[in-house]
Amino acid sequence: MAFTVLAAIVAAAAAALHRYVSGLRRNIAAARKTGLVYLVVPVSPINLAWQLTFWIWVPIIKLLPNSLWERWLFVMIPEWGYATGQTHFDKLGTDTFMVASPGSLVLYSQSAEVIHRMTQNRELFPKDVAKYGILEMFGRNVLTTEGALWRIHRKVTSASFNEKNAAHTFAEAINQTRGMLNMWFGPEGAKTGMTKTIKSLEHDTMTWALNIIGYVGFGLRLLWPGQTLPRDIDPRLAKYGSLDPPPGHTLTFADSVAVMLERIVAIMVFPEALLRILPFKFAREAYKGKINYVQYMSEFLHDKIEETQSGAPPREGMDIMGQLVQSKYSEKAALASSATAKLDDSSIIGNAFIMIVAGHETTANTLHFALLELANNPATQRRLQRDIDALFGADTDPSTWDYEKSVSPMLASHIGACINETLRLVPPVTGIPKVVSHDADQTITVDGKTHVLPAGLACHLMVVCAHRNPRWWPARPSERTGKKTDLDEFLPERWYRSSAAGSSSSKEAEREEEQLDKGDYGGFQGSDVSASFYRPVRGSYLPFSDGPRSCLGRRIAMVEMGAVLAVIFQRYSIELAVDEWAGDAEVEGMNSEERREVYRRAQEKSRETIRQADSVLTLKLHGGRYVPVRFVKRGKERFVSDPMLS
Ligand code: HEM
Q1: Which of 15, 69, 219, 262 falls between 20 and 30 A from 289, CA-CA?
Q2: How far is the centre of ligand 1, averaged over its atoms, from the C-alpha of 431 (Å)?
């Protein structure tokens, strides 16, 4: 008996070893055939189990002699592109390389040509939808589907992304920014002109963005602490805005979204029944977040179906849930032929989830990093304020700002430059997975040479690396760090520079535009970058992706972020908090040089913290990391008004 068991184990191990070796040999041969540079690694870097546990294995591997791992280990660290991307592409001497492992063959590229080809040819290089399981747990949706099914989702969801709703978003972003400022200052800060040290900037920007998409996208009035719901609010919607859990719930709606996003990996990995009984804090939170969120959304769906079937007039704003529900439950949908595609209930909930996640976490993180970079860069902040004064006036009431008149100049000013530069440096989505169509091999051109990629090949577009590739961006030697280029630095002025080594002339840019896929996939059709700025080569700047699968919400995101920066910096400045090095009384007694010295320490620490950002869903500060800041009324700055501080 013991011998039989042993023999079975040996046979299974031999079979596994055979699979391992033959998989590796097959993938190495396929990598070699493409003619591209390739690395060989022992485990697939895109294997989910590896990605969840890499932090255990990497330190163990590093105990081995350097020569065994130093060439390839970087690619096994999921956020390598953001942390150290350029160095590795430099070392390999190429913008496009392959990684062969026993379980996979993957192409990584930061080449604008390659990225452009893949984003423009949706059918030849579809999205690698298998990688989007985490975003499909509540139902299939526009972000996670491909082909004919994606077209149906895109048609239904894109209907409300228009200029009217962008204007509505602008007004609501102004309103929510005031709510956030009121919370930060409180009655005490309003008197002194300075907030206390804020450690919750990331959390607050998430609340800000959720409140906006909640209202503009879903008609839900979500509140800041101390605010109350309007008296005439529809009682069915009141529970979503409640600051305490309403009857039948153990979390508020906003907390259910926040907790669910915080614990999304646990929700995906563990079955609900197991989360319920596991005696760990993370499991309790994940379970609570999930069941509350699911319950809110099914109640919301139910209410919307009733509203649609009662023939109630359309609501103001995007009413994303209303649009989704109408596609299935309206009278028109009922009369439509059965051949007309409709979403099922699970897809309605799935799309609502994706709009909430895509619509708030991305924008919130961009705002969070933009604020931190402005605190890190006082000279940029001062220039931003000058542009805001010129555009909106220093004393005007933001609620009177006119969207149509303001939007283009706003995005062409230093406000736009700061947003673009944040999205270049710290894009919420650092990489986009595509795949070579399973139907046929496809070609790419790298530096004038054609390479054939095998059908089904996984391709990873290294967005964050393309954004820092000196070949495509106007770069100068860094004045601050002495590095070869300043591309790792936040320099919105870059957007006024005229050219980069690999940048195209405006004629070439026009020709490129002509070759684009001009299909109408709904949403905003214009460029992400104002015409007055440096125009990056197509494929080198894609914070919102590009081509048919580009972000549906990019216009409203830009508008939202422009509005919040304008409202905050019209009256206030942001400063890094220096409590770690000096108390308020000490700062009071310091001369200018001493203040500069203490601020420089805070800048150094802040930059180091930002470098440690990584992605679960989007790029942000995880693991309790934060940068403490204060907001001060303009004229009351302790540090950032000093012209010697840049
Ligand atoms: C700074 C803010 C934002 C950034 C950086 C951003 C970025 C992106 C990126 C990179 C993609 C492509 C993802 C992929 O292919 O895997 C995407 C898709 C998408 N985004 Fe955004 N997004 C932002 C804001 C928004 C907002 C505000 C909404 C909606 C309210 C939104 C809705 C969507 C949707 C629906 C898609 C899927 C489009 C499709 O596949 O057809 N996004 N976004």
Answers
A1: 219
A2: 13
465 marked as part of a ligand binding site: no
Contacts of 549 (CB under 8 A, 6+ apart): 119, 122, 127
Strands (E), 413-492: 432-435, 442-446, 449-453, 458-461
The angle subtended at Cα 306 by Cα 303 and Cα 307, nearest 5°, is 85
- Taking the CA of residue 423 as reference, the ligand 1 atom at the shortest distance is 5
Least confident of 45-49, 262-266, 311-315, 522-526: 522-526
Cβ distance 128 to 433 under 8 Å? yes
Structure tokens at 420: 């673009």
Give the residue whose CA is nearest to atom 31 of ligand 1. 553
Sheet bearing 458-461, strands edge to edge: 37-40, 96-100, 105-109, 458-461, 432-435
In short, whether 189's Cβ falls inside 6 Å of ligand 1 is no
Q: Is the CB of 358 under 6 A from ligand 1?
A: yes
Q: How many Å apart are CA 196 and CA 186, to the nearest integer? A: 10
Confidence of residue 612 (pLDDT cuts 50, 70, 90): very high
CA 540 to chain centroid, in Å, comes to 17
Which segments of 474-591 are extended strands (E)? Answer: 572-576
| Beta strand pairing call for 572-576 and 629-633 | antiparallel
Each residue's pLDDT tens digit, 307-354: 888 877 777 777 888 888 888 887 777 666 655 567 889 999 999 999
Ligand 1 pocket, residue 487 CB under 6 Å: no
- Distance from residue 53's CA to the centre of ligand 1 (Å): 28
Distance in Å, CA 525 to ligand 1 centroid: 14
Q: State in Å: Cα 358 to ligand 1 middle.
A: 5
H/E run at residue 2: helix 2-34
Query: Per the confidence metrics, is the pTM higher than 0.90?
Result: yes
Cα–Cα distance, 380 to 81 (Å, whole number) = 26
The distance in angstroms from the start CA to the end CA of the chain is 76
Residue type, 288: K
C-beta of residue 139 within 8 angstroms of C-beta of residue 351: yes
Residue 251 backbone dihedrals phi, psi, to 5 degrees: -135, 155
The string over 477-503, giving b where at least 16 C-beta atoms fall within 10 Å of a residue's C-beta and e elsewhere, is: eeeeeeeebbbbbbbbebbeeeebebb
Q: Would the CB of 359 count as within 6 Å of ligand 1? A: yes
Best residue among 206, 319, 551 to mutate for probing ligand 1, ranked by most atoms within 8 Å of CB: 551
Q: Parallel, antiparallel, or unpaired: how do β-strands 96-100 and 105-109 relate?
A: antiparallel
**C-alpha 41 to ligand 1 mean position (Å):** 32
In whole angstroms, how far apart are CA 551 and each of 51, 284, 542?
26, 34, 10
Contact 267, 137 (CB under 8 A): yes
CA distances from 434 to 122, 231, 381 (A): 9, 49, 38
Q: Is the CB of 543 under 6 A from ligand 1?
A: yes
What is the complex's ipTM, to 2 decimals? 0.99
Best residue for ligand 1 mutational test, from 135, 141, 144, 362 (most atoms within 8 Å of Cβ)? 362
CA 605 to chain centre: 23
Question: Which amino acid is residue 309, in one-letter code?
Answer: Q
Return all residues near 259 (Cβ < 8 A) that are at least 6 apart. Answer: 251, 285, 286, 288, 289, 292
